[in-house]
Amino acid sequence: MRIAVFGLGFMGSTHLKALRDIPGAELVAVVSDVPEKLTGDLSSIQGNLGGPGLKFDFDNVRKYRNHHDALRDKDIEAVDLCLPTHLHSPVAIEALRAGKHVLVEKPMALTGADADQMIAEAKESGRVLMAAQVLRFFPAYVPLIDAVKGGSFGPVRSALFRRRCAAPTWNAWLKNPEASGGGVFDLLIHDVDMALHLFGYPEAVSATGYADLPRGIDVITARLHYPNIADVVITGGWHHPKSYPFSMEYTVVTENGTFDYSSAYRAPTLYKASGEEEALAQPEKDGYQAEIEYFLECCVSGRKPEICPPEQSAAGVKIARLMTDARKRNGEPIPCKL
Fold first, then answer.
1. How far is CA 182 from CA 125, 200, 283, 317, in A?
2. Which residues have a Cβ under 8 Å from the Cβ of 190 and sit 6 or more positions away?
């Protein structure tokens, strides 16, 4: 499958690294409006997961300064959109109309209407559309998914998902809520998607918190209300620029055991009701590689991405928007009518 990566920031660099290890994936083009990045030197790239930037060999790769020119390239079969969030919807729609398969980084869009239009365009074009909700493929979350969906530990009684980092300083657009959606959309959309994947659509959403994006603060504690689960909490956000470390974690209590993970201090662990403690086996494959590999398999086979359907990604956008609206109501539940 001949693929182009649009956007050479942190996520673009991450996806390029993953593509190198995917059999059958041929990088044929890259798109950036920053000429220096088109040289392949992305060593200055920053992101909330840390690590040094990378250098790539773009000698045999076509280089475009804008996405319009790239989408006229008939050799490109699929595009991997790692652009600023406000560009996800318009560029994805243009790509689908140009006959390209589309993998779009999270969040899928900034509004539910835009996400729904992307889905409609994918159906019209007959091309594959998938949002890159990587937690569904992430090694630390896969054993939780398998356990909850398998049902062997009984009903879920409570779930907590937490994700925190410093406010991003590497791109000014991230602090503009009209461009990024703030910390709820940029960061906690992962955990919204995980709740949808595990539990389906909630009946209502409530939230408290505080947002002051110019100062780098965007924090929230949201509750997704389900009829058969006592508590599903999503909490975290941006905690001032630069110094605050990134972390992600979950605690899911089931009838017969508790699943717990923290990127800061605990590998995925099952604490059984019997008193036993068990380290959970994780897939060895990198989550980004597994995600992109699955997308390309869907493109080649012409099947819908059932592991990560765009309809659920669109629902995640709508719930994230409800969370920010509910925060203004200081805990008052808002019915979730998707």
1. 31, 24, 31, 13
2. 106, 133, 134, 135, 163, 248
Residue (of 112, 102, 58) closest to 80 by Cα position: 102
Q: What is the token pair recorded at 93?
A: 């729609």
User: Does residue 243 come out as left (phi exceeding 0), alpha (psi in the -120 to 50 range) or beta?
Assistant: alpha
By C-alpha distance, which of 222, 237, 296 is closest to 2? 296
Q: Per-residue DSSP letters for 219-233?
A: EEEEEEEBTTBSEEE
Q: Residue 239, class by beta-carbon neighbours within 10 Å (0-12 exposed, 13-18 middle, 19+ buried)?
A: middle
Per-residue model confidence as pLDDT tens digits over 209-251: 999 988 889 999 999 999 999 999 999 999 988 889 999 999 9
Distance, CA of 180 to CA of 158 (rounded, Å): 30
For residue 65, how far is the Cα from the chain centroid?
25
Cβ partners under 8 Å of residue 69, min gap 6: none
Helical pair 287-301 and 10-19, crossing angle rounded to 10 deg: 70
pTM of the model: 0.95
The DSSP result for 271-288, as a single string, is EETTS-EEEPP--SS-HH
Give the residue among 336, 330, 316 at the shortest CA–CA distance from 209: 330
State the DSSP string of 40-54. TEETT---TT----E
The string of DSSP codes covering 130-181 is EEE-GGGG-TTTHHHHHHHHHTTT--EEEEEEEEEEEEP-S-GGGG-HHHH-
Spatial separation of the C-alpha atoms in residues 18 and 221, rounded to whole Å: 33
pLDDT tens digits, one per residue of 296-316? 999 999 999 999 999 999 999
The angle that helices 310-328 and 112-125 make with each other, rounded to 10 degrees, is 170
Residue 204, judged by CB atoms within 10 A of its CB (0-12, 13-18, 19+), counts as middle
**Token output for 98:** 């140009």
DSSP lists the bridge partners of residue 156 as 254
